[in-house]
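Retro notes, item 3 of 5
We never archived the inputs for the fe (ii) ion complex last cycle. Fixing that now. Sequence and ligand:
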Amino acid sequence: MIRSISHATYRHRDLAAVRTFFEDFGLIVAHETPDRIFFRGCNDAPYLYIAERGEEPAFVGVAFEVDSEESLQVLSARFGAPIEDLDYPGGGKRVATMDPDGRRIELVHGVARVAPIAVSRPAVAWNSAGERRRLGRFPIFDVGPAEVIALKHVVMSSPNPAAIIEWFTEKLGAFPSDLIGEAKEKAIGAFMRFPRGAEYVDHHNIAVFMGPTNGAHHVCFETIDLDAIGMGRQYLASKGYKASWGLVRHSLGGAVSDYWYDPSGFRVEHVTDGDFLNDTYPTRLNPHNQESLEQWGTMVMPEDFLRS
Ligand SMILES: [Fe+2]
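Structure as it came back at the time:
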């Protein structure tokens, strides 16, 4: 039913500052109106992130791509919401609803794909002690933003994560890859995937954690590889942006991540090398501790990372 995550929408006061930040972060402006900027990555999605102009900065919502017109009709009936034309680049249809916290959840189908943009280099093949994968000299990277390929996930914060987990699993067919808490029924966090049987899918496209607000904790974009994250980190630091946490190798989901703050104070993540799972991987229950979040990192997780 849900194929994957489509795009995230945030509201910002200063669109010019947001434009500059996300270009430095590695996104590309695909389309612009006086009140909206549509950012894309290098993949074939026409946009991954929409910045809307507004007085009060906020996470507006997240959209998911639905696999068929029939699925969209099923979801339209389920939520009692009409199928509307999507008046954005690439067109398509959408059903708009709200999760139990009041976040806007959009379900989209038929958005026209665009030609992918070639990234500047292939991923670096690493030499290991047992295997030579890269022969000759180490490549010299271009200095600049970490090229974003795709939107990977949104992590939401909620005062009632159990209700959000139940809503996403029952209404949208999500499956918790990893739960955090003492018991499944009392989970305070979940990383959820959209399963497709034997096919391997992202460990999570949506996640939720206990938090004081009903907003988003961060939005995550995939880069080429670890070196892109490192070069991107150096570039963002050179521009004076504020780092949040990273580099870190996560325990749950397996990815290597680096977190920054955008000009409105929202966290954004560069990621690479995340897990892919299929239906042979059941839900795991994990304790709520540092080890569940981090295997190694170049800095200790700051205390404010767990606040929204
Ligand atoms: Fe993340």
